[in-house]
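re: ur question from earlier - yeah i can do the single chain one, its not a big deal. heres the input i used so u can compare w yours
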Amino acid sequence: MSGTTDAVLAVDIGGSKFIVGFSDKNGRILYSHREEWEDVNCGEKVRAQLMSGIQRELESNSKFNVLAAGIAVPGFVDNSGDDVKISTSLGEMRGWPLGREFRNRFGLKAFANNDAKCCALAEMWFGSCRDCDDFLYITVSTGVGGAFVLDGRLYDGAYGRAGEIGNCYISREGRQTKRGRHGTLETYAATEGMALNYIELGGEMPCGKARLDGRYVAERARAGDPTALKTFELEGELLASIIAQACNMLDIERTVIGGGISLAFDLFREPLEKTLYEQKYWRDGEFSVVPTVLGYEGALIGAATVALLGIGEHLSRPGPAHRRK
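and the output i got, formated as tokens:
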């Protein structure tokens, strides 16, 4: 198409918002727009708002020749049949035929995956792991998710559920989840869990319009609040314990931490590394934990990566040093 730029449509579906963007073939976001959900409890409203938002962005960005769409989903994606179906806690949606709707409404072929897996692919092709074939990606924000890349390939597991780091068990008599389970990592390490940790350790509730969340605890920690600093110490210990077990079982080379917590990596790096040294079997200097270099756009770049791979676009990366010899 004359006068247009080839691009893929990237959609990052989050718990409180969604972002629609366009990416070139190098994973560079050319444009993006964020929109807050109006009602996350109603599946019909979520679907309607998402599709109308995408329609609006496609119409107002006709300078892009859209090759395909990629969607990062906070939940499960079924790619086993002829259609792409998603299931997510947003509006308790189950088996939504997203692929069919994209074809019918936008004339686009859609590719989707779990948001953490999308982020792992983004790290592999455009981020911190272009030189690494065995790593764990962890995202920590309103929830805790994860994904493994093993031997240079995204690892889905037997039923597509690999990487559910947030559901790993850390305490027999811990906090209860909405599904009745006790003591999972997410109930302690996600934003809400961090806030509860801060209060339980003796922290003070915020005044005025400030919200009790991870950002508030980080601000208090940077201001020297000893309780907030202790909260981040606990955060590092909890994440390190799970990372250490992943290392012991899978012998991974690197862990990338994404999500909002990555912006406060300096506040929990020391306790994380100390706990890793105590719990990781191999005490060598080859393994590393790093914050994502993709920042807030990680999931959006991941959605674009899923689309690029889906249409068979040739992506290049140097790969591990020992395989380049």
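The longest helix spans residues 226-250. not sure if urs matches, ping me
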